[in-house]
Amino acid sequence: MKKLMSTLFVVAAAAGMAMAADKPDFSGNWKMDADKSTFGPIPPPTSMTCKISHKDPDLNIEQAQSGAQGDQTMTFKYSTDGKETTNSLMGNDVKSTAAWEGKILVVKSNLDAGGTQVKFTSKYSLSDDGKTLTQALSISAPQGDFDMTYVLVKQ
Q1: The pLDDT value given to residue 22
Q2: Average pLDDT over residues 44-69
Q3: pTM of the model
Q4: How far apart are CA 113 and CA 141, in angstroms?
Q5: Which of 7, 29, 34, 84 sits at a 20 to 30 Å CA gap from 59?
Q6: Structural domains in the chain?
Q7: Separation of alpha carbons 89 and 27, rounded Å
Q8: Distance CA 47, CA 152 (A)
């Protein structure tokens, strides 16, 4: 019985380590590949970079972009264990939860912009070689629903 319990403990510990190893680390400096990205009805940025610091469950993203709407710098902080976080987007609070679905990090966010509700769902995935980060973004707003995809290359 003692041997069985020891064996089960080792198997459970190994399974836990395997599950942790399945989660990618998004840390690094990233630059948008505009040719591989899609922007839906929104004017695309001319450039975008992200500096990501990721130590599960903490995920911090510093995003800078330039384009027709001017230069913008945004900071987002998430907790990948499903705890709600609050960020600011153009002076409005955005409440988000982030959780793993296998190797994909799904971030669900709600923005209340003066009574107008906007919902965002971002799915972050990392290529097997760790050199390409993809953010598939779905936006649901009173004006309609649309999808965008940012493809970022590690610098």
Answers
A1: 82
A2: 96
A3: 0.84
A4: 11
A5: 34
A6: 25-154 (2.40.128.20)
A7: 22
A8: 11
Cβ 32 vs Cβ 152: under 8 Å: yes
d(CA 66, CA 23): 31
Average confidence (pLDDT) over 15-23: 52
8 Å CB contact between 61 and 87? no
Residue 41 vs residue 18, higher pLDDT = 41
Residue 118, amino acid: V
Q: Name the phi and psi angles at 17, rounded to 5.
A: -65, -40
What span, in angstroms and rounded, lies between the C-alpha atoms of 131 and 133? 7
Can you tell me the distance from the alpha carbon of 74 to that of 16, in angstroms, rounded to the nearest whole number?
Answer: 34
The 10s digit of each residue's pLDDT in 79-100 is 999 999 999 988 999 999 999 9
State the residue for tokens 């971030």: 107
Positions of E strands within the chain: 28-32, 47-55, 58-66, 72-79, 85-89, 92-101, 104-113, 116-126, 132-141, 144-154
- Torsions phi, psi for 57 (to 5 deg): -90, 5
Cα–Cα distance measured from residue 79 to residue 85, given in angstroms and rounded to the nearest whole number = 7
Between CA 154 and CA 32 the distance in angstroms is 9
Residue of 73, 84, 90, 142 lying closest to 108 (CA atoms): 84
